[in-house]
Write a structure and sequence with these properties.
With about 200 residues, the protein is mainly beta. Helix content is about 0%, strand content about 60%. The chain contains no helices and 17 strands. The strands form 3 sheets. Strands 1, 12, 13, 14, 15, 16 and 17 form a 7-stranded antiparallel sheet that branches. Strand 7 and strand 8 form a beta hairpin. The chain is globular and about 50 Å long. The two termini are about 25 Å apart.
Amino acid sequence: MRHLPKSLFKSMPWKNGGGETIEILNDPDGAGLDDFQWRISMARVAQDGAFSNFPQIDRHLAVLDGDRMDLIIDGKPACRLTPESQAFSFAGDVPVEAVLGQGPITDLNVMVRRGAWLATLKRVDLKAPQAWQGAGELAVIYVSQGDLQCVSKGTEMRIPCGDAIRIEHADGPVSLQPHGHCRIWRIEFQAIKGR
């Protein structure tokens, strides 16, 4: 387990220059916007507009705070995302327009290179300790509300709100212990064999 404090997250411009993103983690470390294998980031979206185009990338998007965001993907009927929605998945290389509700939102964005990686992004509200066994070879947990205590084979880490934790090849279940009401976003990555 490795603690990822928000003080180490990187601020950088959007690919289309329309805003700013906070990069939590990417692979390989230091990769740019055109050559990453997977990437986790957050963005403050303050106005309606088009998403950046990412060829050969699959995206998973969730709204962390704010009112709502409607995604119009390739001209199809809008998909509404709120902080109470689960993540929505779509291709990064199709036209996507975002329409906000009442004011700005913050989103959490997971991107993977198509054909090389699969990812899941799931919201979990913790009110009591929970044993969790990751299905992928790598997991990242982002804490958006409350504080989280992670315990694995005698190792304990407290992850405050706004920070994340990286868990690789967990041998056995990880105990997720919330301090008060805790909301986490669990991201799991799985490499596609034979790629």
